[in-house]
């Protein structure tokens, strides 16, 4: 009896060690891909095209496509929204928005509610799940797909209109291209000064 308990505990220990090692390898692979954003997004776009071609060729799985589109829209809105929403800040109503509105104010970078890497990871993971769902007929529920397209377009327009109004009201732009670059004295004059020897 004790030997069975020890062997089952030993099996669980080996399983947990294998699982830990696999998760470490997976995290290491993700860490290596983190700085390569263009390659990551190119792979995700190719995966989305494969999903779209599968839907078009097989003429089905419209509910899966609709659910995937709604999920991607929610991720995109979280990607565009600041981490600290000025609309939820009570001081913003009295003192104005927390984000800088003038050039002479302190530079504060735009911090997203959903960082770019997590946005990419969630889009890629959900697309892979969507592709896998297209291999099972139980997810191919017959629907009139033009209605779903109209629902999605309407939802997209309403959501983006609200997001754009929020950006205009609180004066922020969710897209930045790194830190501001300052030019030195030589770069502004266009002349190179060579010191005598």
TrEMBL record:
Name used for this protein in its record: Protein RER1
Phylogenetic placement of the source organism: Eukaryota, Metazoa, Ecdysozoa, Arthropoda, Hexapoda
Subcellular location: Membrane
Signal peptide annotation: none
InterPro entries: Rer1
Family (UniProt): Belongs to the RER1 family.
Record has Transmembrane as a keyword: yes
Membrane topology: Multi-pass membrane protein
Organism: Molorchus minor
Coiled coil (UniProt feature): none
Function: Involved in the retrieval of endoplasmic reticulum membrane proteins from the early Golgi compartment.
């Amino acid at each position: 009896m004790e030997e069975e308990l020890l062997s089952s505990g030993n099996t669980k220990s080996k399983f947990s060690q294998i699982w830990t090692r696999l998760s470490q390898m997976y995290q290491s692979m993700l860490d290596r891909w983190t700085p390569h954003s263009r390659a990551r997004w190119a792979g995700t776009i190719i995966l989305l095209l494969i999903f779209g071609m599968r839907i078009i060729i097989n003429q089905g799985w419209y509910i899966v496509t609709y659910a995937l589109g709604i999920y991607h829209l929610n991720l995109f809105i979280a990607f565009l929204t600041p981490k600290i929403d000025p609309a939820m800040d009570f001081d913003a109503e009295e003192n104005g928005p927390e984000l800088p509105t003038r050039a002479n104010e302190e530079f504060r970078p735009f911090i997203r509610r959903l960082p770019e890497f997590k946005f990419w990871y969630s889009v890629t993971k959900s697309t892979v799940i969507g592709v896998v769902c297209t291999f099972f007929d139980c997810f191919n529920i017959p629907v009139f797909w033009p209605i779903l397209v109209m629902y999605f377009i309407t939802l997209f327009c309403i959501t983006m209109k609200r997001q754009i109004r929020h950006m205009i009201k609180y004066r922020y732009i969710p897209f930045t291209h790194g830190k501001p670059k300052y030019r030195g004295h030589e770069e502004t004059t266009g002349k190179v000064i060579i010191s005598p020897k």
